[in-house]
């Protein structure tokens, strides 16, 4: 018995020497001890492991998994300062930067990782997918539980401003009708003309994503926008949008990319009445080009369009589109899209019959730094959308042999500056110009809005 007790005592002392606490004061423990150490214990080892890049990378990953994002970013930055060639630490650092709002820096790090020749194909597919989705905050995390988890992001924004045409009225003073006894010009009533005034616009957006094996992803998106004009000029309206998307990466050498199928819909109210509804299906394939910094995305789709207040306007729009998105640097991104299709009337009596449509979209976002005034540094966004439609039949016999040809241009400029964690203030300038040989469709509007934005992504 004494022999057994002595052996047990020696075993106990041996185990005691190997516990994490034995390393707290003198030497950096071996990596096998990091795995079971608490966050508090890792903090105690931070000084003795000050020159160990792998330790700081592990500690940063643990902090990130527990939601201590800012502390994780500090630890991961230490790891990369000691050894910049740690891909796992690079990914975790990119994720931590994205979660604290430095998304452009996160995308730049992600681009660097994608250039590595030693990256696994399956991981590269997942990273490329995250980059295409513009969500570096949801990168694959090597130290998190592999079970499926929803990741959510939300945004709330409210802005007050002024518009020149709150009621979206036709920009014309008169209309010429071709009657049996000849043409007659009618002047429009004052309440049918554009009315300027102030308005409040509010927006709420929620996005969620669920990642599966092999880089598969299911994502949902919901948005609600509301405009209320103080003068009650008939411009009050609401828009609700929702979509669900499924993405599947495909590895095929130079043609590697992601298949995506999406279902979505929109509903638009003027006052309390539904003025427009649509539902659609889209199939898209996005592949990398130019070393992963740019993505080409051809797509095809169909949209069912309904006008509950005037069902003769209902139609089905079949289209094809090509998009090109490119990160031109660490702090800027540009999107260009070109598409077109056929808007087929569901009833033969629809004014104008079938309609051909072409569309162009250009959008650019960039972080702007002001060296003389750091507090004024923020994000600049600019966008331009242009569309052209051509009726195949005459619009109405009352307007003569007129086949409507309408072009519409919308542009905007926004500048938003962070004022606190998750909070930003900004200004948006917006303008719309619609021109047509059918004077009913002529429209002009311009507006300026100043507002406050909250975002947790």
Report on the architecture of this protein.
- The chain is α+β, with helices and mostly antiparallel strands.
- It has 2 domains: 17-138, Serine Threonine Protein Phosphatase 5, Tetratricopeptide repeat (Alpha Horseshoe), CATH 1.25.40; 151-455, monomeric porin ompg (Porin, Beta Barrel), CATH 2.40.160.
- It is 20% helix and 46% strand.
- The protein has helices at residues 2-17, 31-34, 39-45, 53-65, 69-82, 87-99, 103-114, 121-132, and strands at residues 150-163, 174-179, 182-187, 197-211, 217-229, 237-250, 257-270, 273-289, 294-306, 315-329, 332-345, 355-368, 378-391, 405-420, 423-436, 443-455.
- Helix 4 runs parallel beside helix 6 (87-99).
- The radius of gyration is 29 Å and the shape is elongated.
- It starts with a helix and ends with a strand.
- Determine the number of helices (DSSP H or I, runs of at least 4 residues): 8
SS-based class: alpha+beta
Compute the CA-based radius of gyration: 29 Å
CATH topology value of the largest domain: Porin
Return the CATH class of the largest domain: Mainly Beta
Please tell me the CATH architecture of the largest domain by its name.
Beta Barrel
Q: Tally the beta strands.
A: 16
Low-confidence stretches: 1-25, 141-147
Question: How many discrete structural domains?
Answer: 2
The CATH superfamily of the largest domain bears the name monomeric porin ompg
Oligomer: single chain
CA-to-CA gap between the ends?
Answer: 64 Å
Strand order of the largest sheet: 1-4-5-6-7-8-9-10-11-12-13-14-15-16
């Amino acid at each position: 018995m004494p022999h057994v007790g002595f052996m047990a005592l020696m075993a106990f002392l041996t185990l005691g020497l190997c516990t994490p606490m034995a390393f707290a004061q003198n030497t950096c423990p071996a990596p096998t001890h990091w795995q079971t150490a608490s966050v508090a214990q890792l903090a105690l080892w931070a000084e003795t492991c000050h020159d160990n890049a792998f330790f700081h990378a592990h500690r940063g990953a643990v902090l990130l998994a527990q939601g201590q994002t800012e502390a994780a970013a500090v630890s991961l930055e230490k790891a990369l300062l000691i050894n910049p060639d740690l891909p796992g630490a690079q990914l975790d650092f990119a994720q931590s930067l994205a979660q604290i709002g430095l998304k452009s820096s996160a995308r730049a790090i992600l681009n660097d990782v994608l250039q590595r020749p030693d990256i696994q194909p399956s991981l590269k597919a997942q990273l490329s997918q995250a980059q295409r989705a513009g969500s570096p905050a949801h990168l694959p995390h090597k130290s998190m539980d592999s079970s499926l988890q929803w990741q959510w992001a939300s945004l709330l924004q409210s802005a007050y401003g002024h518009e020149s045409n709150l009621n979206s009225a036709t920009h014309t003073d008169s209309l010429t009708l071709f009657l049996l006894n000849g043409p007659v010009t009618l002047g429009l009533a004052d309440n049918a003309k554009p009315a300027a005034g102030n308005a409040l616009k509010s927006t709420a957006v929620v996005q969620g994503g669920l990642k599966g094996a092999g880089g598969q992803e299911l994502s949902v998106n919901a948005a609600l926008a509301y405009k209320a004009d103080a003068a009650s000029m008939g411009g009050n309206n609401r828009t609700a949008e929702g979509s669900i998307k499924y993405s599947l990466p495909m590895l095929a050498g130079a043609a590697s990319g992601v298949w995506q199928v999406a279902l979505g819909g929109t509903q638009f109210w003027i006052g309390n009445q539904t003025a427009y509804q649509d539902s659609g299906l889209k199939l898209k394939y996005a592949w990398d080009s130019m070393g992963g910094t740019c993505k080409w995305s051809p797509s095809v789709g169909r949209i069912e369009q309904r006008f509950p207040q005037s069902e003769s306007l209902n139609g089905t729009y079949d289209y094809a589109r090509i998009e090109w998105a490119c990160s031109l640097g660490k702090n800027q991104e540009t999107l260009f899209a070109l598409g077109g299709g056929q808007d087929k009337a569901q009833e033969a009596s629809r004014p104008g019959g079938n309609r051909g449509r072409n569309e162009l979209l250009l959008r650019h976002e960039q972080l702007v730094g002001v060296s003389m005034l750091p507090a004024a540094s923020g994000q600049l966004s600019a966008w331009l959308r242009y569309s052209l439609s051509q009726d195949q039949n005459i619009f109405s016999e009352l307007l003569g042999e007129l086949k409507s040809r309408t072009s519409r241009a919308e542009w905007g400029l926004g500048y938003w500056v962070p004022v606190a964690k998750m909070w930003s203030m900004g200004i948006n300038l917006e303008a719309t110009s619609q021109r047509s040989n059918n004077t009913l469709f002529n429209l002009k509007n311009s507006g300026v809005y100043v507002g406050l934005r909250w975002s947790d992504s």
